[in-house]
Amino acid sequence: MAASRTFEEPALTVLAPPRPVLRRKRYLLPFGISAAVALAGAVALFVSGTVALPFKQVLVITGKLASKSEFFTDDVVRRLLMAQGVQVHITRAGSRSIATNDIDSYDFVFPSGQPAALLIRNQRQRESKYAKVHKPFFSPIVLATYRDYAEALQAVEQGEPDKSLYYNLPMTSLVEHIKEGQTWNELSHGLNNGNRVLAQTSDICSANSAATYLGLIAFVENGNQIPQDEESALALADRIKPLLTSQGLPGDDMSKQYLAPEGKGLAPVAVIYEHQYLAHQIRLKQQTGEIDRNRVLLYPEAQVQTVPELIALTPAGDRLGEMITNHPGLRKRALELGFRVFEPDGSLSQGQLTGFLKALGIDVPSTGVGDTETFLPSLPLLEKMIERVGDCP
Amino acid sequence: MKRLAAVLLAALLAASCSAEAPPPARLTVLASPELADLGPVLERLRRDTGVELVLEHRNTLEATAALASGGAGHDLAWLSSDRYLKLRGARPPLSTSTMASPLVIGVKKGVADRVRGGTWAEVADRAAAGELRFGMADPHRAASGLDALVGVATAAAATGSALRPQDVTCDKLGGFLTGRAFSAPTSTAAADEYVRTQDDVDALIGYESVLLSLNDSGKLREPLEIAYPRDGIVLSDYPLMLLKPERRDAYDRVVDWLRGERGQRLLMERGRRPVEPDLPRPPRLSEPIGNALYFPDRQEVLDTLLAAYDRAAAGERGRVVFVLDYSTSMAGARIAGLREAFATLGGGGGFDRFALGETITVVRFAGRVLQEHTVTVRGQADLDALRDVLAADDLVDGTAIWSALDRGHRLAEGGAVVLMTDGENNAGISAEEFLRALPDPPARTYAIRFGEADPVELDRVAKATGGRVVDAATGSLLEAVKEIRGCR
C-alpha cells in the first residue's frame, strides 16, 4: 500500500526535504505538551517563589536561633520570604548559648526570651556593634502534658470538664509534689509511671524556656518574692537545685519529645512554648479536622509571657526583621504557627490569635495578658542562679 | 515554532541546571556499627542530593571518646546518641536527630511468658533463677550495652530519679548478670553471636531496629518477641553531628533529605522510628514504648556503674550471712515476717532474689548459736533447704546477739552480714568484746531492728563496720532486707 502510493506520487517522496525533527508530527505533539506543562510548572514555581533563584538575585540571610527556628523552617514562611527575594539560612542553638558564643558571622539572632536578648544587646552595645531589635510576636511558657497527668496534678480545667485543652495549675502544689520526691504512681496509680513527679526542661545552661522555668520555681519557692541580692539568690538557687536536676540529663528539644507519638513516655510533662503546642493543634485541625484532646496545657498562675527578640546584626538582618514584623502574609502565618502577634501599635494582646483559633474551632486559652517576666530576678542575679543550678561551664 | 521550542528548551535546561544539581560532595562519617545496614538508603541519598556519605564504623563509646578528645578528622559523626559525649563534658557540635530506636529485650516466644510485661525487674528475677539466658553488648564499648546497664540499675534503684553513684553501691546487678550468656563488642556483633548460639540462649538485649532486622533476616529458628522494659526505657535518637563547620552546606543537604519524607520512609523500612511525628508508621514501629527513664547526668555515675558491672560480671558476689534471732520473743508475727521475707527472696524478689551461684549463710541464735547453714544456690532444692532452716520452731529463751554476730563475722569471708534481732543482749560476749575482736577490715554489718532491741548499741556496732541500722518497725521487713541485701 505504501509502496504503490510512492509510485503514484513520486515527487512528494523524492523532492520534499527531510522534515526538521521539531516539526515532525509524531514528535511535535508530545514535545509540545510536555514543554507546555514544564513551562507552566516553571511559571507556577517562579510565581510562588520556589525557583526564583536562577531568575533574580536572592538575598541569603543567616541567623542563629532557638525555638523560633520553627518559624523559619516552615514551608509557607520560606515561600513568602522567597517571594520577597530572601532566603533564611538558620543555625540552631539554645538561646543562652547564642548569647554566650560568637555571633559576628550572622545577620541576625533570635533568642527566645528577654534575658538572653538583653545579654546580647548589652554585649553589642559595649562593643559598639550594629544591633536593631524587632519584636514581632510573643508566646507564654507553659507546661505541656496529657489529660490524665493534668488530672493527677489536680489542675483546674478552664472550660468544660474532660474537654477543655487548658488547665490552671497551682504551682505551689506542683512544687510540693516535686519536693516530696513523689512518683507519678504515688500520685495516681493509673499513670503507670514510676518516675518522680517533675516537669522536664531542656538544658538550663542553654535554653530560655528552662531558665524561665527556673525563675518561676524560684519565685514560688521564695513565697512569690524575687530575690534582690546575690546572697539570697544563690541560697535560693541551692534550695531549688534538686527540684530542677533530678530529671538527669536534659533533652535537646522538649517540644519535639512531647509532640512525638511516644511523647507520653518521653516527656509526660514538658516545659515548652504555647506556640509549639498550638501549632500542633492547628496543623492537626487543618489536616484532619480533629483536635488532639489527650494533649493539654497547664498554665501556671504566675504570668509567664516570653517575648523573643529578633536582633539584627547587619542591615540585611534588619530588613528581615522589618518583613517579619510588617508583612501581612508573614503575620498571618505567625498566627497559624500559634504565635500571639503584637498589635500594630506594639501593644501586647491576644486578640488576633483568639479570633484565629475561634474561626478554626479550636478552644482558646484564657490567660490574662499581664506583665512580662516580672517574676524573674534581675539579669545578673538570674545568670548567677542559672550557673549555680546548672553547673554551667 | 522551531525557534520557540528551542528557546523553551534552553530556558528549562538553564532553570534545571542552576536550580537543581548541587555540586557533588563526599563526607567522611564516624558512625555507630548498627548503621551498617543503611547502605541502600545512603545510595539513594547520594543520587538525590549528590552527597556521598562514607561511613567508618566504630564502637559508639570508643567513637565518643575519640570525639571528646578532638575527633579523628571526620567531617561528620553519626552515633546512636550524644548523651555519652555530653557526659564527658564535650561541647556538642551542631547536631540533628535523624531517627529513633529504643533499647529493648527480644525474648524467644516460648520464654516470653516468663517475663510477662518485660520489665528489667522481671528479667533480673528470671535470670537470677537460671530461667533466662540472654546476650548483650559490652557496656564498656557499646552504647546499647551501657544503655542496658543504666536501665537495669535505674530500675533496681527504683528511686524514680536519675541514677546517682550512691544508688549503684548496693550492687543489684549480680542477679541480672547471672543470666548473661555472652557479651559482644557491638550491638550488631551481639546479634551475630545470638544467631550462632540461639539454641542455648533465650533472649537478646539491643536496639529495636537490630532485633527487627534479625527477625527479618531468616536466620532465627524461633523469632524474638520484643518486650519494652517499661521500668527503664532508653531511646536513641541518632543525631547527625557536624564536626567540620566548613562542610555545613553538604551537611544541610544530608539533614534535609534524611528528615524529609523520602529519607524517613526509607529509614522506617529499615526498622527505625521516624522523628517526624506526622508520618504514618507500620504497626511494628508504633508499639508503645513505656516511660523513658531519667538519664544520669554525671560521668561519675557511669564509672561507678561500670565498676559494679565488672565486679558482678566476674562473679564477685559477696557472700551474705544472715544472723537471725530465734529467741521466744520473736514468736508469732515477727518470725512469720522473717520467713515471708526469705520466701520472697527465694523467688519473685526481682532484683533482690537469691541468684544462682550466690552463697548464703544462715546463723540462727537465741542464748547461743542454734544452727548454721550455708548454701550455694544451684537450683530450687537449695532454696528449699534454706526455707526449711527458717521453718525451724525451736525458739528458746536467751539472746546472745554479739556472740552470734561474732560467729557470723567469721563465716562472712569478705561478704556482708545482716543481723535481725528484737531483744537486748543477755548472754555471751558484750558489744565491747565483740568490737575488740572485730577483724580488719570488718564485714559490713546491717542490723534490722524489731521492737525492743537497743537502737543505740546496734547503731554503734553497725557504724563501726561501715553498715547501718534499718528499723523494721517503720517499714516492712522485706523492704528493709531488700534495701541492704548485697550492699558492701
TrEMBL record, chain A:
Transmembrane intervals: 27-47
Superkingdom of origin: Bacteria
Protein name: Extracellular solute-binding protein
Species of the source: Saccharothrix coeruleofusca
Entry annotated with the keyword Transmembrane helix: yes
Keywords per UniProt: Membrane, Transmembrane, Transmembrane helix
Upper taxonomic lineage: Bacteria, Bacillati, Actinomycetota, Actinomycetes, Pseudonocardiales
TrEMBL record, chain B:
PROSITE patterns linked to this entry: PROKAR_LIPOPROTEIN (PS51257)
Stored Pfam families: SBP_bac_11
Residue ranges of domain VWFA in the record: 317-482
Entry keywords, A to Z: Signal
SMART domains (alphabetical): VWA
Endpoints of the signal sequence: 1-21
Coiled coil: none
CDD domains, per database record: vWFA (cd00198)
Full protein name: VWA domain-containing protein
Species in which this protein is naturally found: Saccharothrix coeruleofusca
